[in-house]
Amino acid sequence: MLRCEHCRLSVRGNRRVCPLCQGPLTGEPSPEVFPYIPSVYREFHLFFRLLVAGSLAAAVACLGLNAIFPQGGPWSLFVLGGLACAWLILGTAISKRRNIPKNLLYQVLLLSLLSVAWDFFTGWQGWSLDYVLPILSSSALVAMLVVLKVLGRYIEDYLIYLLLAALLGIFPLLFWLLGLLGTVYPTLICVAASTMSFFVI
Question: Is the pTM of this model over 0.85?
Fold first, then answer.
């Protein structure tokens, strides 16, 4: 077993330095106490490599075609933006994968911000506020309740996430009051469902 003379402790495993003082360890390594658990990136490394390669190939191909045929405008920027959004959403989903309601909440916030940004940079038609935000908020609340039912968890375990999801569903009411909506029905349905859910929760 490895030993740190400075801290006067024994260390299992195959470390080179002491976990407390970072000093050198002496002695022979011993078997690890805890099993090695690969990260999701190591476990699915081939899938992620193929995904990265495919994304890079699509980006390069689109930039090349856009340079050869510039008549249609800079459409390759939309492809690059779409790829960046997809990687951002995937990275968030993987980093929050252990807590599904929290993951859903993060995805709703991220997708809402991205949809508003896309709407703004493509000439602002208002579809992000009219449709995307209320539909995302309602879907997240329903998805959280379904997940809790499927996992057999109590609502109290994820109460804060359910309340935040319900509040997010009430938030689009502000856009209606400010006169920013062209189509109000999705927002009204979302606000009604979220308000009832909020009081039920």
Answer: no
